Amino acid sequence: MTANLRHPEDLATVRASYDAVADNYARMVVTDGMGDIRRQPWLRAAVDVFADAVGDVGPVLDVGCGPGTVTAYLAERGADVSGVDLSPQMIANARRLHPECRFEVGSWTELELPPASYGGILAWWSLFNLPRALVPQVLAHCARALRPGGQFILATHMGDEDVRRTQAYGDVPVSWTTHRWQPEPLVAMLCAAGLRPTAQLRLGPQDGAGRAVVLAAQRDE
User: Fold this and answer.
1) H helices of the chain, where?
2) Cβ 190 vs Cβ 216: under 8 Å
3) In this predicted model, what pLDDT tens digit does every residue of 7-55 receive, in sequence order?
4) What are the DSSP calls for 94-157, one per residue?
5) Which of 79, 180, 212, 220 has the CB geometry, 3.0–4.6 Å to 74, for a possible disulfide?
6) What is the spatial distance between Cα 206 and Cα 211, in angstroms, rounded to a whole number?
7) What is the torsional sign of CA 132, 109, 85, 195?
8) On the CB side of 44, how many CA atoms lie within 13 Å of its CA?
9) For the whole prediction, is pTM greater than 0.85?
10) CA 102, CA 59: separation in Å to the nearest integer?
11) Cα 174 from Cα 16, distance rounded (Å)
12) Angle at 213 (CA atoms; ends 108, 57), nearest 5 degrees
C-alpha cells in the first residue's frame, strides 16, 4: 500500500533537476569525497550507531540515496540494505558505482512500505525537498513500516527558512526548495508518529547552514 500522500506539484521539476546534476554530483563524490561519511567522523559515528542498533532486526531502506555512498557504507557494515531515489540518473550512478547493492527509482510520496517490514530507514539529507506539510505524514508512514526495535535516522540542513535553489553542483540550473529544519519540530513529529527519539547531533555550518542528525527507534511491543 502506498503512502497515500498528495504529490508536490513540482515533483517532476525536482526530479528533472536532480537528473541534471546527478553526473556532476557522482564525479564530486569520486574525486572530492563529497558526501563520503568516511571523511566526516561525526556523521560516520551517527551512522555507525544506527547500523549497530539495527543489527539483525530486519532490512534497511536508504530513501533519497543519491549515488549510493551511505547505502554502500551500510552494506560494508553488514546491513541488508537497499537504496531508493527520486532521480533515475542518480540511481544509474549508484548502480554503476556500487554494483553490489540494490537500487530502485522512487520518491517519498510513492513508497510502498508494508507495516513492520523494515529494521531501519534512513532519511539522509532527503526530506528537505518535501513541503513541510507532508513531513509528518511521511514520518508516520515510516514509523508504521518499522519492526519493533527498528531504527530511523534523518539528517537535514538546520535553520528556520526555506532556500530556493536555482543552481547546484557545478552551477547547473536547477529548481528546488531546500526546507531547513530545527531539530525540535522534527523530534516532536517523530514522537507523534509513535517513535522514540534516542539521540541528536548538531554540527556547525556548512554552505551557510548548520546540520542536524536525529535518531529514533520504534517502541518494542
Assistant:
1) 11-32, 41-54, 69-76, 88-97, 135-145, 183-192
2) yes
3) 444 788 899 999 999 999 999 988 887 778 888 999 999 999 999 999 9
4) HHHH-TTSEEEE--GGG-B--TT-EEEEEEES-STTS-GGGHHHHHHHHHHHEEEEEEEEEEEE
5) 79
6) 7
7) positive
8) 12
9) yes
10) 12
11) 8
12) 70
pLDDT tens profile 187-207: 999 999 999 999 999 998 766
Homologous superfamily (CATH) of 11-174+211-218 is: Vaccinia Virus protein VP39 (3.40.50.150)
What is the maximum span of the chain, computed from C-alpha positions, in angstroms? Answer: 49
Grid cell of 180 as nine digits: 531547513
Sign (positive/negative) of CA torsion 220, 108, 215, 22? positive
| C-alpha cell of residue 54 | 539495527
